[in-house]
Write a structure and sequence with these properties.
It is a single chain. By secondary structure, the chain is of the alpha/beta class. It folds into two domains: 177 residues, Aminopeptidase; 72 residues, Sporulation related repeat (Alpha-Beta Plaits), CATH 3.30.70.1070. Helix content is 40%, strand content 29%. The chain has eight helices and twelve strands. A six-stranded mixed β-sheet has the order 4-1-5-8-6-7. Helix 1 crosses helix 6 and helix 3 runs antiparallel to helix 6. It is elongated. It holds the Pfam family SPOR. One of its GO terms (molecular function) is peptidoglycan binding.
Length: 261
């Protein structure tokens, strides 16, 4: 399974850029945690964090940690400062693999597709720099500068929970696309309203359910070498929806159960 390290910049005694009561380290952590949540909930991937709380972590500790995990990708989250506006991404300005270049292209495009269309954020471009976390990581790495903390319009966006969520999800989707991560297979709750060795009996049960306003299909199954015809009265992503359908069927005097797949 692929390994991704998310690095919330600064932390602890290092606040990063500051504008009044707003500190870069706090925004970095908020975005990074949402990226982790997005990736873990949707893809088969191991996600590691250089910090999950407000603690001091040196640059060397960050890269040593990523290297010790034999990670496949490293993403460092930062907020810009200096009076500008917009979003930009960085990879190492030395020799890098084609994979590193292509990953930057994918992530940059994914994020800007969301930020430019929904929030009219300026694209500051794909850049290169001699940052420690880009130079000393042995895997492909990227550093993202997510708007400017000292520009009023940018800060107002960073203070918006919906913006932070959209940004984090775009970063997560960019990483997933760049790494060709496999989507996580979520549980499907199938409501089975009878199993018959007679296909005709199964079809009769399905018609009964349909006459009571419930869609039903007959599914052929092999159990212990024998052919059975199951009547499936719905398949749901949420168990609560499956249970509601189950109760409706039982009110008709029909035995039924939920099959998790």
């Amino acid at each position: 399974m692929a390994k991704v390290v998310i690095d919330p910049g600064h932390g602890g005694s290092d606040a990063g850029a500051v504008n009044g009561s707003y500190r870069e380290k706090d925004f970095n952590l908020s975005i990074a945690l949402k990226v982790r949540e997005y990736l873990r909930s949707r893809y088969d991937v191991n996600v590691f964090m250089t910090r999950t709380t407000d603690k001091t972590v040196s640059l060397r500790q960050r890269t040593d940690y990523a290297n010790s995990q034999n990670a496949d990708y490293f993403c460092s989250i930062h907020i810009n400062a200096g009076g500008g506006t917009g979003w930009e991404s960085f990879i190492y300005n030395g020799s890098v693999s084609n994979r590193t270049v292509q990953a930057q292209n994918v992530i940059h495009r994914k994020v800007m597709d969301v930020l430019s269309s929904k929030y009219d954020v300026r694209d500051r471009g794909k850049k290169r720099a001699n940052f420690h976390v880009l130079r000393e990581t042995r895997m492909s790495a990227i550093l993202l500068e997510n708007l400017f903390i000292d520009t009023t319009r940018d800060l107002n966006l960073l203070k918006n929970d919906t913006f932070i969520t959209d940004l984090a999800h775009a970063i997560g989707e960019g990483i997933a696309d760049a790494m060709s991560l496999n989507p996580k297979q979520s549980t499907l709750y199938k409501v089975i309203a009878g199993s018959f060795q007679s296909q005709a009996n199964a079809r009769a049960r399905a018609r009964l359910l349909e006459s009571n306003g419930m869609d039903a299909v007959v599914v052929k199954a092999n159990v212990s070498g024998k052919t059975w015809y199951r009547v499936q009265a719905g398949a749901f992503r949420k168990r609560s929806n499956a249970e509601a359908r189950l109760n409706k069927i039982k009110k008709l005097g029909i035995d039924a159960f939920i099959l998790e797949t």
